[in-house]
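Hypothesis: this fold can be encoded by more than one sequence.
Test: take the structure tokens below, design a sequence, compare later.
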């Protein structure tokens, strides 16, 4: 009964993690476009520059998807062909893309662990390694966020960057890395005890 309840929860969590993996992958595709213009400039940009090219008429509800895709592809083209045309945009895009890739790795490790829970054998060395990889990814995000924060402090010559989400990234992902490392040690010890018990039997 208890085992089935744990596996049902693990199955639900696996579905949620899989959805997040898909959303993360889609989000990575849109990173250059979202960092190129602010959200309140995005739709006016589409109407003024792309929709006039496609339809030469005002923006309608059904006219948003194809121009948006063209805009995202244009941003990717600019990143790949003229990377140094706007250094700040390039660095900001690279930062968010790197963070997105690390979060994708963390989610994949979580799905691997949930797979072992569904198999009924979660105490494995592979889970300890998965937790360690997640910890490394968290610390990479935290370190890059710290570098970006220091760069922003020097660039703006004020304390304003301290009050952004970037500062939160440094603290939260550093603590997340510590938590994953503790969980990795626990999984490793549990796996070793299980191996010793199996050998004894």
């Amino acid at each position: 009964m208890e085992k089935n309840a744990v596996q049902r929860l693990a199955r639900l969590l696996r579905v949620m993690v899989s959805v997040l993996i898909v959303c993360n992958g889609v989000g990575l595709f849109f990173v250059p476009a979202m960092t190129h213009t602010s959200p309140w400039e995005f739709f006016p940009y589409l109407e003024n520059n792309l929709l006039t090219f496609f339809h030469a008429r005002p923006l309608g509800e059904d006219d948003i998807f194809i121009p948006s895709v063209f805009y995202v592809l244009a941003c990717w083209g600019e990143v790949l062909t003229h990377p140094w045309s706007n250094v700040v945009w390039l660095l900001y895009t690279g930062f968010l893309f790197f963070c997105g890739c690390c979060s994708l790795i963390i989610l994949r490790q979580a799905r691997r662990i949930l797979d072992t829970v569904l198999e009924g054998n979660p105490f494995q060395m592979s889970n300890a390694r998965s937790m360690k990889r997640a910890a490394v990814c968290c610390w990479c995000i935290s370190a890059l966020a710290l570098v970006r924060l220091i760069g922003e402090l020097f660039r703006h010559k004020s304390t304003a960057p301290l009050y952004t989400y970037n500062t939160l990234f440094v603290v939260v992902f550093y603590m997340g890395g510590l938590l994953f490392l503790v969980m990795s040690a626990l999984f490793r010890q549990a796996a070793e005890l299980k191996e010793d018990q199996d050998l004894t039997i």
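The chain has six helices and no strands. Residues 165-200 form the longest helix (36 residues).
Hypothesis status: open.
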